[in-house]
Amino acid sequence: MPGRQHITVPDITKTSRSTDLVVAGCSRQLLAAYFQGLPRTKQPETVNVTAVADAFEKMRNMLAAERQWRKKWCPDLNIWRATSLGRHELENCSVLAWLLSPDAAHEQGPLFLREILNVAGLGHLAALCEGGHYRVNTESFESDSDRVDLTVEGRQFLVWIEAKTGSAERKDQIRNYSALLSQKTRARRLSSSQATLVFLTPTGRDARTGQAKPLSWLTVARALQSASDRVENDVLKNIVGQYAQFLREEVCQ
Fold first, then answer.
1. Poorest-pLDDT segment among 3-17, 54-68, 122-136, 224-238
2. Which of 32, 77, 123, 143 is most buried (CB neighbours < 10 A)?
3. Which range is least confidently modeled, 17-26, 77-86, 137-146, 187-196?
4. Nearest C-alpha neighbor of 166 from the set 105, 89, 106
5. Which of the 8 DSSP states describes residue 210?
């Protein structure tokens, strides 16, 4: 159109959450020229340029305030996402073993183990772990060909955990573990109620290759979250709470 001023303006519809950067670079005069240069329709509509500019200014201020809030509180921060944990079974078992260990650097004794056993319906074993007289191991070889992901063994109880996050069971895997646990229970002169084989999966499904106590990673996450509420140290509280969140959002999906 002859005589019309042509002004190049960033396409706001193609910007991301950084719309405020576009607005910051556009003066009121530029916005006014932009809207005045738009093609006219058959039924012209009045554009309140000042009101539009004020709205963008308010948006810019809101986004700036949000950036400051996020910088201070880091609402999406989760240290576990920065690791290579993912859905890897052994790596997650290593984290779980650290939490369950009574003499680990978290200094919480049997707190996390006790909470998990209670929510798993194994309260009678939770009572036996008081005092922290037990040890936790990962990838424990119980025979030449059988390696249990996580074992918790005390003077008066045995808990073996076979964890799955995606891999399938081997042929007769749980049945073999159950037989080995029974042998060890008898050798330690414990009753059958003092020993449990747990099958840990994202959904808490039953094992297909033998009998075991089903448990879900989601239940573990809830137990850890509950236990973290009783932790006095804020750093540890956040570490455990973030791992519980990681399990819910990454492992249980």
1. 3-17
2. 32
3. 17-26
4. 89
5. S
DSSP 84: S
Q: Are 133 and 125 in contact (CB under 8 A)?
A: no
Has residue 58 got a pLDDT over 90? no
| Single-letter code of the amino acid located at 173 | Q
State the burial class of residue 171 (Cβ atoms within 10 Å of its Cβ: 0-12, 13-18, 19+): exposed
pLDDT at 6: 44
Give the domain ranges of the chain.
12-73, 80-251
Q: Which residue has the higher pLDDT, 239 or 73?
A: 239
Which of 3, 7, 2, 1 has the alpha carbon at shortest distance from 35? 7
Exposed / middle / buried, residue 220 (Cβ in 10 Å: 0-12, 13-18, 19+): buried
C-alpha separations of 106 from 117, 123, 208, 218, 234 in Å:
19, 23, 36, 22, 12
Over residues 92-103, the mean pLDDT reads 96
Token digits of residue 50: 């000042």
Lookup: tokens for 158: 């045995």
Q: How far apart are CA 151 and CA 136, in angstroms?
A: 6
| Strand, helix or coil for residue 15 | coil
- Cα–Cα dist 16/7, whole Å: 22
Block residue for tokens 């509280």: 237
| pLDDT for the residue numbered 181 | 96
Task: Give the pLDDT band of residue 37 (cuts 50, 70, 90).
Answer: low
For residue 61, give every residue at least 6 positions away whose Cβ sits within 8 Å of its Cβ, in sequence order, or none.
Answer: none
Terminal-residue alpha carbon distance, the chain: 57
Which residues neighbour 222 within 8 Å (Cβ) at sequence distance 6 or greater?
119, 244
